[in-house]
Amino acid sequence: MLLEVNDLYKTFGGVVATNHVSIAVEAGEVHAVIGPNGAGKTTLVSQLTGELRPDGGSVRLDGRSITRMPTFRRARLGVARSFQITSVVNNLSVMENVLLAVQAHAGHNFRFWRPALECRDLVEAAHASLERVGLDDRAQRPAADLSHGEHRQLEIAMATATEPRLLLLDEPMAGMGREETVRMVEILNTIRGGPGILLIEHDMDAVFALADRISVLVNGAVIACDTPDAIRGNAQVQAAYLGEG
Q: Where are the domains of the chain?
């Protein structure tokens, strides 16, 4: 098993954010986590990346405990994350944004652009990541010129450029129109089968198009974990989330 989350528990004051959460992600699997606002989804991801320390429970990557490991060490082991709010550096070019990720993964010093731009291996790796998300023809444009959807595509390029073993996607379709969402689903389908993917997403069409398994988080607790078809027909999930509105 690539990722094993066992009995993860986190509180903020008297509020239970993750309530004894257990989730597993297999290598190459797309495992979606859904739930209403305030269910604890982003808090869960932040504990997986090491940005938040759990009050109890454990997180294991390929059988190795990373529960108390700092974020940078998890990244070196192959954990990559995209955020609800894009982390693209707008005053850099599209290519330079991806080079930041490629250089960090390769152990190069990213403060010096000229050596990086002259390093064929780094540039080829960056181009490959951009081509994967359909942005190779925009490589030299300022990132600020990209649309919202293209920013999200660039963030996926930056995350996959690190050759992650586990990719944590926190609402990659947030703020997108239907056409942009369809494009993002296509992009994520092209990388499935590579890194294990834990997908946090509100767009149910996207979730059902992508996920191999779905965990449903309500009030910090997992109330169901099953295949998309089983989750769609689960009466408890319908009452707690899918039947909302």
A: 3-87+164-242, 89-145
